[in-house]
Amino acid sequence: MKRGPLMSCLVALTALSACATRPVVVATRPVTPALPFEVAATPERYAGAEVIWGGMILGVDNREAQTEVNVLAYPLDSAQRPVPEAGTRGRFIVVLPGYVERHDYPDGLFITLVGRLAGTRAGQVGEHAYVFPLVEAAHVHRWPPGFQFDRPQWRFGVGVGVRL
């Protein structure tokens, strides 16, 4: 019995499965597909719902018992990475327990999180009144700088070789 073709097939399948993307955050229950601006418009409809959102950090505010991280939302790709070139989806505030060092959550860093919606807060964006959804984070994944350039790239080509 020839094992060459079978082994080649198994090696190829193993290599392909290694390239499959896995989620970086895992929800403990079904998540709502609502976007931050939809939650801000009708917060009572989404009270207590679990979400997986991501975006870019705009600022950190340490309060007495918790830290609030202001985030500009972006849609997520299949690997739960924020996609900045797809355009923004509103803003939201991530609520983290206790004190969080600003150095660990610097402005401009991208994150993905899973958490529970915990209401809204009225605020300002410049001179514009804005309603921010509040998300009590269960898990936050911080993306390294330049992560959006680390996507797999597939290239195919056809060439002609000349040997002298």
- What percentage of the residues does DSSP assign to strands (E)? 35-45%
Specify the CATH architecture of the domain at 36-147: Beta Barrel
Largest beta-sheet details: 5 strands, mixed, barrel
Number of strands: 5
Estimate percent helicity: 10-25%
User: Overall pLDDT, averaged?
Assistant: 85
Specify the number of helices: 2
Using the coordinates shown, work out and report the CATH topology of the domain at 36-147: OB fold (Dihydrolipoamide Acetyltransferase, E2P)
Query: What top-tier CATH class of the domain at 36-147 fits best?
Result: Mainly Beta
End-to-end distance, in Å? 41 Å
- What is the molecular shape? elongated
Structural class: mainly beta
CATH superfamily of the domain at 36-147: Nucleic acid-binding proteins
Element-level helix/strand string: HHEEEEE
Oligomer: single chain
Question: Major sheet: order of its strands?
Answer: 1-2-3-5-4
Q: Note poorly predicted spans.
A: 9-19
Our Rg estimate from Cα atoms comes to 21 Å
